[in-house]
Specification:
The complex is a heterohexamer, with three copies of chain A (112 residues) and three copies of chain B (447 residues). Chain A has two helices and seven strands, in the order βαββββαββ. By secondary structure, chain A is of the alpha+beta class. In chain A, the strands form two sheets. Chain A has a four-stranded antiparallel β-sheet with strand order 2-5-1-6, covered by helices on one side. Chain A is elongated and about 55 Å long. Chain B is an all-alpha fold. Chain B has one domain: Ammonium transporter fold (Orthogonal Bundle), CATH 1.10.3430. Chain B has a two-stranded antiparallel sheet. The chains are: A alpha+beta (112), B mainly alpha (447). At the A-D interface, strand 3 and strand 4 of A face helix 8, helix 9 and helix 10 of D. Strand 7 of chain A pairs antiparallel with strand 6 of chain E. The structure holds adenosine-5'-diphosphate (ADP) (3 copies). One adenosine-5'-diphosphate sits at the interface of chains E and A.
Chain lengths: 112, 447, 447, 447, 112, 112
């Protein structure tokens, strides 16, 4: 099984959610994170002092899927999450060794 | 000789007594003058005490109307997303500055120009700046001083623009908005205001608007509507898949705002009595509160029927709807009338919010529903429920609504349009996504 | 002939003068009447000025009591978890609506029924609705108009139910709570209120409760206690491993609430003077503030001794404890008395909170400690410290506390019990875990 | 016989009339007395009405000054980091307790000692506690009662320490801070206050400070400065790589604070008229509001020029700068003057904040810029703009600023220094990193 | 070494913490996340519009443990985190290549 | 590629950010987490009840880097994030199987 982490735009989150549902991904975990990036040269001003900050709040999705579903999920996120402008975000796939449903103790694909 | 003798013997007795009587009368007269003087002095003191209490109430009312600006700021901040909070606070902070200063510069003298006898009552201007004479600080001016008059009216003036700021939130550019607000508060609001409160043509024809359902609230609502139309909805609100609600970021902040608005409304309506008259002010407090309460219930019931939910955002707007609804007739309504007016205003809120959304007119805080729609309702309600000599007829009320609405909407539309084609009124899509706080202020609301 | 001649020569002189004197006297008399009239007019004006300022203060006090509803809302919202914030705000918003409207419908006339001479003073009802006569708007009614009376008392009425809402927070079902609140505010609160403020039997026996330590605060506390007992504690509060504190989600919100409550208390206690009497109102402001300050210090000291910590939540409740404690005798206490009363109330708070927790009575905001326990303390303090003719004796005070407590607790218990067996008063465990905001309102407080 | 006959025939006529006249005069006289009495009674009533309204305004002003403590709490809480919020709220809650109780114990009698004729006007003390005579509750005392005087002044007293709490936030130890505040409010503030408001030597030399630009605001600012110097900056603020701004955690909270401060300022300045005098109070409301508005604009313009940004934190501080600036002369300035004074105060804010940062004096909320620098500016502005007989000369104003500044700064410095070497005034680096909420209170602000 | 991520109920967090302490796990990292799930058919209502949302805030624990401790930790979380109702959450085990204590530079099990 | 997770002190975050920039790491993701630790014996007091809590808010950085850069990044974090006192935090390195830029679809090192 794989863990797919996607760091996406806030404004694309709802669309991605729907796209995932269409391909049968009904469960995942998400949270707000901050993206640090140098390119923007953005500044923050507070009480007379200006300083650089290219940090933008972003949404991070964490989805555990069977290995064979990775491609579909990546495809769905790419399709709905893209605007073509800088800042669309990243997808990271990492290996999962165990995945267990706490309620029943089922593990692996059964736990999905 | 006998005569002389007689005279000399008879008269003294009478004469003496007569003199006594005369003296007594004179003394009485003198004392009477003292008493009259004392009575006059007492009257002057009593009148001054009355003047002082009337004036004090107008000042306290002005402070209460001031706190409505915090109410609007909190309400609007609560109803926008976290990324646009600094922006909405900044706009509201600027509006109060702009409102007070332009009202001082020209607004007050545009709104209360003292129309000449033969004036058509459409427009007059009493000159820049404020220059009260010495009499203007006494009861000769009114039940309050010139300064009290100014500061109370000035606090009112800024509320109009505040209404706009909520409706156009989360996408308008800061500087164009501030330019619009300045012109709107400095010119448009006082001119339409002069038609009624300044003694202009609407006043002459019998239009009735006690504390400003139309003159303040609808006026703000019409300007908001013009802005909304020209701006377009926030990105992602109306999608191919339907309407996507964009939730406000903090319900407690919104609730604080609404309660403070209700609190301030005691000054807004209560102060509009323009004296501390016990009967009228206490009636206004009662009708205002009952209408607000009924508005909350109305919005609760209606939104429950519509969506089977207990929707706090609707109840909060229902309070405001009830308050706006009663504002035009708060001094003439009975208890039952004010409850009915508030309840209907509450029912209007969910219907109106949904209708605006169906029309793809995106108003993040519901300002058009609260201030425009309920403002119109309240103004009409004066004709429907009001039962007094000078309560406007249906025609008079309708004329007022339409005339002021048309003027304000057209002026606002033109203003926003000019700003749109010259400097642009909408932030870029990228800035909108990022949030106006970072895009326009480089500052986050929460850290 | 001589006679005639004499008469004609003598009389004129005297007679003329006499006539003058008469005329002068008459003139004086006439002027005197004018002076009297002027003096009477001045008196009338002075009386009206006095009436106006008294009435104005009652109205401003009503507005201040109104803001206590925001205070309660913010305090309670701050002391619950993030997932139950919308729910507590919704309940408080509804309570103010229910409070005002039912008080208008029947509460006012239940609480001030004008007991008949031979009445036992337990229950009377002056009829539905409000119908003041023309005299009721003048000083013939009181130092304020009928409407001022109504709106001031109506703002009080709703506070009782607000107290309950905090204590039963985070687990009670919305609709049963609203039904309870309606009946409680419409019937139970006004009936016990009539016993004292309505001139009923407790008033006759010399029970003293200036602004409602018992009539408002304990009453709310008893109802809260009944609710807490029947509801049971929040899940996870009392575990096998001991008491697990469930922290409130926002201390700033709670602090805003408490400061606003103190602010509103100037109206709650100050307005209860029922006139703007300079001596009494200023005394009440002073005792109220000092008791609150001493309450804060008392709670700080006591909680520091108990837990060696600087516990903000205790200090905030200490303020409220001091305020509730002084409420029964704010108009009769000396400076030193009020500081002692407040300080003891402050000390009571941490002890009481801990005691309730030991008894597994779960009160998320400490309403029972603040309003019930300190309410009882304040009412007894009148007998202990009060030093005046009509200050209630210890027996009178105790009778009032017990009678009102028993009535309110029993009525509330029965009401909650009926609701429990019919529609259920507690949300499911799953809903409780999820939070009432999503379960009952489908809306999050923060996004 | 003839005579007798004559007399008997002549006299009756005249005599009768004379008697009538006499009686009439007497009656008139009697009525005159009644009229005079009535007039006097009316005068007494009118005077009492006037007294009541004056007194009521002082009390309402006291309540408004009270709400400034919530304003300061919210502003300071908003401008610190999330981890220090409970701490700042706790300090502000304690300050109001300490302020009221010590002012009752000794502050009031230190500040208004009633300097003896031949006193140098530097120091006097009227004894511990409060003990008003019966006359002190009547107009014989002033336009308000003794209690009103006390509570209004007591609310003022605590504001000084509140100013300090913001400046030393995020690093000072709790207990030393509370000890400092106690001594500062109990002794230092009232002594310098007595120099002017208590009728001391600065008053005698013509120093003018209407509502306390120097006596309250600068005084707080000087104490803050002493604290800042001895404490040192927050960790990580001034690094080898330059100044690292440490952002406040909640802009809405800060905005709520500032709006409430403005609201409270109506009582702070308006109440300082010490009566409800219509002309003066309304003038003060107007100058105060216009200066605040101009301060907001000034800070906006200046910070925009400096950093090309729309900096909400600056605009909020600009409001306060304008308010502090007008405070010394709010009752004597013209409209134009007050706008200029406020605007300049607004411009000062960003310059001063930057200057303090350059000097590595770390003030998280900008209290020194707002209260110290703008307080000095406002006091000087009285000499520059004021145009009246008793407006202080430049020398008088400067003497007041320097004398009060030197006294306060030295006393505060010594106090903080003693605390520093005995118990330490700064938390450990580890505690500072962890946040004072956990380190000192074991409680988080948000959960 | 392994990284154990557990997405659990808020209400079970304290119990799990205690259970972990009992088996010697005194350090871990946790944060609030949102669980998206279709099953509830939950709705959100805001200003007159209703829309679906099955999203519930949850607590996520991240625990780095020696491989041989995984079973114990999973067991402890399963024992204390289970209610038997839908929504008890998931446990995810992933491989860790390096684990370093910043203070000392120790790595691997020494860094625990 | 590797994913480096670093749990660090708030007060060191800015310094670490700058150090990372110096070695060419301009992009990463960060979020606030809570560190649970037994050592402090810290207590929380709320409304009269005291209970243990050693939990401290911390900053977590997540950085995806080419395998050969891991050492540099770990070194930079260690250099700037260390105070020498307990609580400096941890660094965790885990394997990444795919890394994709949503905007372009580039993957692996190209996506950086
Ligand atoms: N190497 C990285 N490690 C972790 N997160 C990253 C990395 N690079 C980018 N991100 C995350 O992805 C977000 C978007 O990436 P960005 O480079 O701005 O867009 P684009 O992929 O369109 O160039 C960043 O804000 C950051 O949160
Ligand atoms: N495939 C998944 N990927 C990531 N997180 C998941 C996944 N499935 C479930 N979760 C998380 O676990 C939580 C609980 O799972 P759920 O399916 O509701 O309970 P149960 O395991 O009892 O059926 C979800 O809210 C979500 O945060
Ligand atoms: N085994 C672990 N699993 C996950 N996170 C951990 C683990 N051990 C420590 N941490 C995290 O690292 C932080 C700092 O570690 P700590 O042990 O306090 O410092 P030090 O490394 O200086 O001993 C903790 O607050 C926690 O967030």
């Amino acid at each position: 099984m794989k863990k797919i982490e996607a760091i996406v735009r806030f404004s694309k989150f709802e669309d991605i959610k729907e796209a995932l549902e269409k391909i049968g991904i009904n469960f995942f975990t998400y949270l707000e994170v901050n993206g640090h990036g140098k390119q923007k040269g953005d500044t923050v001003t507070y009480r007379g002092a200006v300083y650089d900050s290219g940090d933008i709040p972003r949404m991070k999705l964490e989805i555990i899927v069977p290995s064979e579903k990775v491609e579909d999920v990546v495809g769905a996120i790419m399709a709905e999450g893209r605007t073509g402008n800088i800042g669309d975000g990243k997808i990271i796939v990492t290996p999962v060794e165990q995945f267990i449903r706490i309620r029943t103790g089922e593990s692996g694909n059964d736990a999905l | 000789m006998l005569l002389a003798y007689l005279q000399s013997t008879i008269t003294p007795t009478a004469q003496e007594t007569v003199d006594q009587a005369l003296a007594a009368a004179a003394a009485a007269q003198a004392n009477v003058d003292k008493a009259l003087e004392a009575a006059t002095a007492a009257q002057t003191s009593a009148d001054f005490a009355q003047f002082t209490v009337n004036n004090l109430w107008i000042l306290i009312a002005a402070a209460l109307v001031f706190i409505m600006h915090l109410g609007f700021s909190a309400l609007e901040a609560g109803f926008v997303r976290k990324k646009n909070v600094v922006n909405i606070l900044f706009k509201n902070a600027m509006i109060i500055c702009i409102g007070l200063l332009t009202y001082c510069l020209c607004g007050f003298n545009l709104m209360y120009p003292g129309f000449a006898e033969d004036s058509s009552g459409f427009f007059a201007f009493a000159g820049f700046g404020l220059s009260p004479g010495p009499d203007d600080m006494t009861a000769a001016y009114a039940d309050y001083t010139y300064w009290s008059d100014f500061i109370f009216q000035a606090m009112f003036a800024a509320t109009g623009a505040t209404i706009v700021s909520g409706a156009v939130a989360e996408r308008i550019k800061l500087i164009p908005f501030l330019i619009f607000s300045t012109i709107f508060v400095a010119l448009s609001y006082p001119i339409t205001g002069s038609w009624k409160w300044g003694g202009g043509w609407l006043d002459a024809m019998g239009f009735y608007d006690f504390a400003g359902s139309t003159l303040v609230h609808s006026v703000g609502g019409w300007a908001a509507l013009a802005g909304i139309i020209l701006l377009g909805p926030r990105l992602g609100k109306y999608t191919a898949k339907g309407i996507r609600p964009i939730q406000g970021h903090s319900m407690p902040l919104a609730a604080i705002g609404v309660f403070l608005l209700w609190f301030g409304w005691f000054g807004f309506n209560g102060g509009s009595v323009l004296s501390a008259d016990p009967e009228l002010v206490s009636l206004v407090f009662t009708t205002t509160s009952l209408a607000a309460a009924a508005g909350g219930i109305g919005a609760f019931v209606c939104s429950y029927i519509m969506t089977k939910s207990h929707d706090l955002s609707m109840v909060l707007n229902g309070f405001l709807g009830g308050l706006v609804g009663i504002t035009a007739g708060a001094d003439i309504m009975s208890i039952t009338d004010s409850i009915i007016i508030g309840f209907i205003a509450g029912i209007i809120i969910p219907l109106s919010v949904t209708a605006f959304d169906k029309a793809k007119l995106d108003d993040p805080v519901g300002a058009t529903s609260v201030h425009l729609v309920c403002g119109i309702w309240g103004t009409l309600a004066v004709a429907l429920f009001g039962d007094c000599d000078d309560c406007g007829s249906f025609t008079a009320q309708l004329t007022g609504i339409v005339a002021i609405g048309a003027f304000t909407f057209i002026v606002s539309f033109i203003l926003f349009y000019i700003l749109k084609v010259t400097m642009g009124i909408r932030v870029s899509a990228e800035e909108e996504e990022r949030g106006l706080d970072m895009a326009e202020h480089e500052l986050r609301a929460y850290n």
